[in-house]
Amino acid sequence: MTASLPPVSARLSLDTLAGLSATPGLALPRLDPASVSIGIVHFGIGAFHRAHQAVFTEDAMALSGESGWGILGVTGRTEAVAQQLQPQDCLYGVLEKGVDDTQLRIVSAVRDVAWPGRDSEKIIDIVARPSTHIATLTITEKGYLRGPDGDLDLALPVVQQDLGLLERELGGETGLPASTSPLGLLVRGLARRFRQGGKPFTVLPCDNLVDNGTITHRLVTSLVAAVGDDHSRERDELLAWLAASVTFPSTMVDRIAPATTEADRQLEGNLLGLRDEALVVAEPFKQWVIEDRFAGPRPRWEAAGAILTADVAPYERAKLRILNATHSMLAYLGALCGHATIAQAMTDPVLIDLARRIIDEDILPTLATPDGMDLSIYRDSVLERFGNPNLPHTTRQVAMDGSLKLPNRILGTVQDRLQQGQTPAGLALTVAAWITYIASTIGEGGAVLDDPLADLLQAAVGHASTVHTDPNGVVDRVLALGQIFPPAVQASAEFRQAVVDELATVQTIVRASFAHV
Ligand code: CS2
């Protein structure tokens, strides 16, 4: 049907935007981009930020009439996103794919984009500017560079390199090379802000980590505290300013935003008549809960539907433990059963039943009910969202970085259940599915294991067949990884045995699923 349409070649931009009009299914920017100035620096401008915080920020500006909250988006290691956004004057579409309906909106809250490899001075300067008030972060679990004790891993070469650059920044040098990590760059920005007057500032992490604000505070402080005694005065003054004038609220973020495909770009091209290389795809649902602890001004995000609260923890625990935990389970077991997407996994009654049971039996007993939320309704809505057939979120995408995701989504719950005197069988099964998934990536023909600890994990599992031949040995070696499993989980003979037993359950489920085909 769409094949007969001519290919779209003109790019979305401020010029081409002027020729567009809103139609049913297409919403134009809610702001005049020319009137918006930068008030936020965002580190990690991937699909999730563009589909989530940028949309809340655009709505907040539109509804409050404030125009000072435009975003400078800082890319990750590569320039790719800058190359997508720059020619488009940073405009992009969000294709919201519901079960029955697809809507496209063009977002204009991102007003500039910078690539650290070229623009690090500019980024640092903009963090330091008095008119900038907030840095938001979506740098993924691995961007936080935490060591086995959860604090900044000072042994990492990137951290050492960024520490050296921070010391030179504190010595007053400018025009230095780029910091390698987003944290390194942020801290240099904070150091310059302090030197240039020290207006209060807020750092707002938006990644799926338990207590993300507290963690980010600790990491930033640790990097500064590691500065050598040659700069002891600057170091100590900066530490004092951080303690007095910079806050790190915790947040819970939620919106499923799978990787954009060329088919999505073509669908958008047909709706818009323009080519948009920066398109992002998302479900209609979005939620943002923010600890209301800002050092300075902030956008009126509540006008856009965000919840500002004194305590994010109950929302964040519920989301990580219900949504992200079962997402990971469905990714590992789903992939093993041959499902390419989460939505396909959610057509399998065995997997649906399992997800439900894990939530009811292992997870809900560990949760406090957040204000205004009914957790069983939340559970049902999460499972319904996973089943959205128009959202091809691949099991492979959700499966990546398991060594960093499982501690945040699963192992805290395991620990709580063990403390309650219960062995969480469904979560043991999730760990067993993860181990089996790792095994499936070993040897010829195996998929790539996308995880910073891939070598360690594959070595712990050994050989693809050891899961069958030596389940006890495999479980012992995996549970021994202290950078993943907390001591209380490692010490539980019951949990260890449950993982061994559930390796067999995983085999049974996988075999039965292929027997059906
Ligand atoms: C997913 C999350 O990729 C993953 O690990 O579980 O990105 C998930 O889609 C979001 O947290 C939903 O808010």
Automatic annotation (TrEMBL):
<comment type="similarity">
    <text>Belongs to the mannitol dehydrogenase family.</text>
</comment>
<dbReference type="InterPro" id="IPR050988">
    <property type="entry name" value="Mannitol_DH/Oxidoreductase"/>
</dbReference>
<dbReference type="InterPro" id="IPR000669">
    <property type="entry name" value="Mannitol_DH"/>
</dbReference>
<keyword id="KW-0520">NAD</keyword>
<dbReference type="Pfam" id="PF01232">
    <property type="entry name" value="Mannitol_dh"/>
</dbReference>
<keyword id="KW-0560">Oxidoreductase</keyword>
<dbReference type="InterPro" id="IPR013118">
    <property type="entry name" value="Mannitol_DH_C"/>
</dbReference>
<dbReference type="InterPro" id="IPR013328">
    <property type="entry name" value="6PGD_dom2"/>
</dbReference>
<feature type="domain" description="Mannitol dehydrogenase C-terminal">
    <location>
        <begin position="311"/>
        <end position="506"/>
    </location>
</feature>
<dbReference type="GO" id="GO:0008926">
    <property type="term" value="F:mannitol-1-phosphate 5-dehydrogenase activity"/>
</dbReference>
<dbReference type="Pfam" id="PF08125">
    <property type="entry name" value="Mannitol_dh_C"/>
</dbReference>
<protein>
    <recommendedName>
        <fullName>Mannitol-1-phosphate 5-dehydrogenase</fullName>
        <ecNumber>1.1.1.17</ecNumber>
    </recommendedName>
</protein>
<dbReference type="InterPro" id="IPR013131">
    <property type="entry name" value="Mannitol_DH_N"/>
</dbReference>
<dbReference type="InterPro" id="IPR008927">
    <property type="entry name" value="6-PGluconate_DH-like_C_sf"/>
</dbReference>
<dbReference type="InterPro" id="IPR023027">
    <property type="entry name" value="Mannitol_DH_CS"/>
</dbReference>
<dbReference type="GO" id="GO:0019594">
    <property type="term" value="P:mannitol metabolic process"/>
</dbReference>
<dbReference type="InterPro" id="IPR036291">
    <property type="entry name" value="NAD(P)-bd_dom_sf"/>
</dbReference>
<feature type="domain" description="Mannitol dehydrogenase N-terminal">
    <location>
        <begin position="39"/>
        <end position="302"/>
    </location>
</feature>
